């Protein structure tokens, strides 16, 4: 079971690189080489459990597919974004929030001073 889950996660990661870096052969090959290197190094090191490594690789795959968007510069100087159906699109709700309500996202410090009441 673990071996098949690991190979499935590996194949899923390679597919994710194909989706994320479809039109950029150099980055596609480099990302696949990095995944291959990391996959086999992680299996040898044994610092994490096998299931943690599989979960980590699945998280990387999900991130690549949902959050990486390629941009292509057109002749007129504008960029065309290659957004696909699996790209995660936010709802921009954080734009409507006040910076004080956002906490650490806005750079606000979570600690209070003695002089604050």
From TrEMBL:
It is found in: Mitochondrion matrix. The keyword 4Fe-4S does not apply. The keyword Zinc-finger does not apply. InterPro entries: Complex1_LYR_LYRM7, MZM1/LYRM7. Its main location: mitochondrion. Keywords: Chaperone, Mitochondrion, Transit peptide. Belongs to the complex I LYR family. MZM1 subfamily. Interacts with RIP1. Assembly factor required for Rieske Fe-S protein RIP1 incorporation into the cytochrome b-c1 (CIII) complex. Functions as a chaperone, binding to this subunit within the mitochondrial matrix and stabilizing it prior to its translocation and insertion into the late CIII dimeric intermediate within the mitochondrial inner membrane. Modulates the mitochondrial matrix zinc pool. This is Mitochondrial zinc maintenance protein 1, mitochondrial. The gene is MZM1.
